Q: What sequence folds into this?
């Protein structure tokens, strides 16, 4: 199955036009004693400190106000980092340095409102996965100056740099990805990759002049990287001088290798750069799922999910990852029922990846997460 064509973020965008119609006041839940990011679960004499931050996106399991409220509260009480993934760019406004569309800004305000008090913020943006991608909200047409242009065109570079600068100004992130799963661009064509790499180097270099202490990078998909290896691995390694972190996304149900084998290969491939690691998005399935049309099978079980998370968090602690992000926190069966008539069946793949099932019942993997989250975060010299 070609996992490079689709993304769970597209699923979120398909539902978000309804979700974002819910007044923001519903989302702005008053802080309670539980908003201390788990500190109440860390009594004196608790286990050793963990060396990495733990986070989620604010991906809702349904498009109701109640689901959004539950998502906010779950992130508030189970994370000390939040991830905001934003694919696509308002190219016309970015090029001309004009105000972004009102609809887009409303969505950004909602994302920003989901940040738990005191949490670190990871923002990931993307110009596209081979071609210039328009923003999903308040989209205006691609301006004539950019039509048919590649990533390395001077005007594209100008617009994307402006966009990244304004993203930093708005979100004030602690970590910034200026490319999402960019090895998929290599799959789209070597010339597209060459152009992207030039854009990435330019934007990285300019932003580092202005924000020398902000970690800036692009992410790679481990499941596609380990399948392709060879030249794809080589070009990703060649871009590492312009990445402050080694950042990966990983969905182990897309490969035949075990997570242990995949992580071993990954570390062996990137250890030589001497840079910190981050797992920018991941999940493992907790239920068996067969796709109706393709017959592709995800062989998930609660035990397998818990074992994967235990392996990941142990490695993250030992190797002092900067952070680990789970994309899905609760199964989105309800959301899937709403959108399945118009969505590719691949969007089912992540449906049963939650630490919480569709009924709101926690799985063994949630206990694994909490065991680490209950440890106080603290490593000298790390943000």
A:
């Amino acid at each position: 199955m070609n996992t490079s064509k689709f993304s769970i973020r597209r699923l979120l965008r398909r539902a978000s036009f309804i979700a974002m119609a819910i007044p923001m006041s519903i989302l702005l839940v008053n802080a309670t004693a539980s908003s201390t990011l788990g500190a109440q679960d860390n009594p004196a004499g608790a286990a050793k400190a963990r060396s990495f931050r733990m986070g989620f996106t604010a991906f809702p399991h349904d498009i109701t106000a109640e689901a959004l409220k539950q998502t906010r509260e779950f992130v508030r009480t189970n994370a000390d980092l939040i991830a905001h993934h934003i694919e696509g760019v308002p190219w016309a406004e970015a090029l001309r340095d004009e105000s972004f569309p009102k609809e887009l800004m409303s969505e950004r305000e909602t994302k920003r409102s989901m940040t738990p008090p005191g949490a670190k913020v990871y923002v990931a943006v993307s110009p596209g996965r081979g071609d210039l991608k328009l923003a999903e909200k308040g989209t205006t047409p691609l301006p004539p100056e950019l039509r048919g242009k590649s990533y390395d065109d001077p005007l594209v570079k100008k617009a994307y740099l402006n966009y990244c600068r304004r993203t930093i100004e708005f979100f004030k992130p602690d970590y910034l990805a200026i490319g999402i799963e960019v090895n998929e661009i290599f799959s789209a064509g070597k010339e597209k990759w060459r152009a992207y790499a030039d854009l990435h180097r330019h934007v990285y270099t300019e932003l580092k002049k202005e924000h020398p202490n902000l970690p800036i990078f692009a992410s790679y998909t481990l499941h596609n990287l380990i399948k392709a290896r060879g030249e794809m691995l080589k070009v990703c390694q060649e871009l590492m001088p312009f990445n402050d972190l080694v950042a990966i996304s990983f969905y182990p149900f897309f490969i035949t290798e075990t997570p242990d084998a995949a992580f071993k290969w990954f570390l062996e491939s990137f250890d030589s750069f001497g840079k910190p690691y981050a797992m920018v998005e991941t999940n493992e399935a907790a239920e068996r799922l067969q796709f109706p049309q393709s017959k592709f099978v995800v062989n998930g079980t609660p035990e397998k999910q818990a074992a994967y998370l235990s392996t990941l968090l142990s490695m993250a602690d030992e190797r002092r990852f900067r952070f680990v992000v789970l994309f899905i926190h609760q199964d989105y069966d309800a959301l899937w029922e709403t959108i399945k008539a118009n969505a590719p069946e691949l969007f089912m793949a992540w449906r049963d990846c939650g630490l919480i099932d569709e009924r709101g019942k926690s799985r063994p993997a949630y206990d694994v997460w909490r065991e680490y989250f209950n440890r106080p975060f603290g490593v000298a010299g790390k943000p």
Notes: The first helix runs from residue 8 to 19. The chain is about 40% helix and 15% strand. Residues 8-28+45-373 form a domain with the TIM Barrel fold (CATH 3.20.20.80).
